[in-house]
Amino acid sequence: MLKLSGEALAGDKKFGIDPERLKWIADQVKDAAELGAKIALVIGGGNFFRGGREGWGIQDRVSVDYLGMLGTVMNSIALQESLVQHDLECRVLSAFEIPQICEPYIRLRALMHLKKDRVVILAAGTGNPFFSTDTAAALRALELKCEVMFKATKVKGVYDSDPLKNPKAKFYREMSFTKALSKDLKVMDATALSLCRDHHLPVLVFNLFEQGCLRQALLGKSIGTLVR
What we know:
With 228 residues, the protein is an alpha/beta fold. It has 8 helices and 11 strands.
């Protein structure tokens, strides 16, 4: 399971989708797929609308979350198209039923696509407000019997503070779920971390934007931070 933030697709634009960044991500996924990995992805929607936050004058948390989930659908369709252009078979399965553009999420259908070596993109989070796309990624990873969850970031891994603001931030090569939760290290939200901990799903946090990092992770190289 590969978890991407919506901001990862925006690049330096901060909003929307950067075509060059989209192509970069598709290149990394194709590189990984050529190793024979079966890949499922969950993408956030923060490059369009961040669920859980008030915006556009909308006060209702539920409405805001639904807007965020719709943003993930847009990102998923865009990444699907880019992957197809890279000659990868790909399917988008959505927690919302939008039959004109993607399939509904049905666990056995997703497993069938993975068995046929198709990249599966899981859109619209869990389909419910109050749950982040990190939690959706953890849930889908467990449902699809994934061996590990890769949490892609723009930094090397997990630090004790923001390394972009604190040059002396301490980097962790490995840590327990309990430590990540107790220190509130922002690896993922607490619900997602607890779900992974309770079901023994390891999480590798790494910088997707270093060339070949996804491939190295699949080959078992020592990169990023392993949380288990």
